[in-house]
């Protein structure tokens, strides 16, 4: 019962006149927000806020944590082509939820890293999974899914999706100003 236009995946069900491509955009926008968590800017600013706590809790210097971040990022760059092949093979509907779960697990992995011999491996693995599943896999998955659903208004759909990233970058860039504001409610003040 779906009318397929010119052999592509753009479908409009016959019963209701709603184009499901816009539902796909509504799904990819929060997914793009998850991907943004794995970006360099967000993690650089976020890690900068918690370096003191990491130094105290883990017993390692800032430069060591930054080195672990670099190694995790380099390893994820090597893994990106493999993730692209997985996206081509299984599609965005399978890859996007797996990557979101992997991002959450990487956060848990970073949280359980303790001050023992496995700290380096856990931090590098956590940063690797965060970077690979975030910017390495979720961003191309969102773009691919939108490209598959849209023919005519592809530019508009992609720009709505990318607006999310730009908006989050602006908010994250302004967060130090917001956190240092004296008018910030007491429950939002850093400890």
In short:
The chain has 191 residues and is mainly α. It is built from six helices and two strands. It has a two-stranded antiparallel ribbon.
List keywords for this structure.
single chain, mainly alpha, two-stranded antiparallel ribbon
Radius of gyration: 20 Å
Low-confidence stretches: 1-10, 186-191
- Mind describing the biggest β-sheet? 2 strands, antiparallel
- Proportion of beta-strand residues: under 5%
The helix/strand class is mainly alpha
Helix percent band: over 70%
What is the residue-averaged pLDDT? 75
Major sheet strand order = 1-2
Broad shape: globular
**What's the total number of strands?**
2
The termini sit apart by 58 Å
- Element-by-element helix/strand order: EEHHHHHH
Helix count equals 6
Structural write-up:
This protein has 191 residues and is mainly alpha-helical. The protein is 75% helix and 3% strand. It contains six helices and two strands, in the order ββαααααα. Strands 1-2 form a two-stranded antiparallel sheet. Helix 3 packs parallel to helix 5, helix 4 runs antiparallel to helix 5 and helix 5 packs antiparallel against helix 6.
């Amino acid at each position: 019962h779906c009318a397929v236009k010119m052999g592509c995946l753009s479908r409009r069900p016959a019963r209701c006149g709603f184009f499901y491509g816009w539902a796909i955009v509504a799904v990819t926008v929060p997914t793009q927000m998850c991907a943004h968590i794995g970006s360099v800017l967000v993690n650089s600013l976020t890690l900068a806020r918690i370096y003191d706590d990491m130094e105290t809790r883990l017993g390692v210097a800032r430069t060591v944590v930054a080195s672990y971040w670099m190694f995790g990022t380099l390893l994820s760059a090597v893994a990106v082509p493999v993730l692209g092949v997985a996206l081509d093979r299984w599609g965005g509907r399978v890859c996007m939820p797996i990557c979101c779960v992997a991002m959450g697990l990487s956060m848990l992995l970073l949280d359980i890293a303790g001050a023992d011999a496995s700290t380096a491996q856990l931090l590098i693995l956590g940063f690797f999974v965060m970077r690979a599943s975030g910017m390495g896999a979720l961003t191309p998955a969102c773009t691919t899914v939108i490209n598959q659903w849209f023919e005519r208004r592809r530019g508009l759909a992609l720009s709505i999706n990318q607006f999310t990233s730009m908006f989050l970058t602006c908010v994250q860039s302004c967060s130090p100003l917001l956190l240092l504001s004296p008018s910030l409610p007491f429950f939002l003040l850093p400890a």
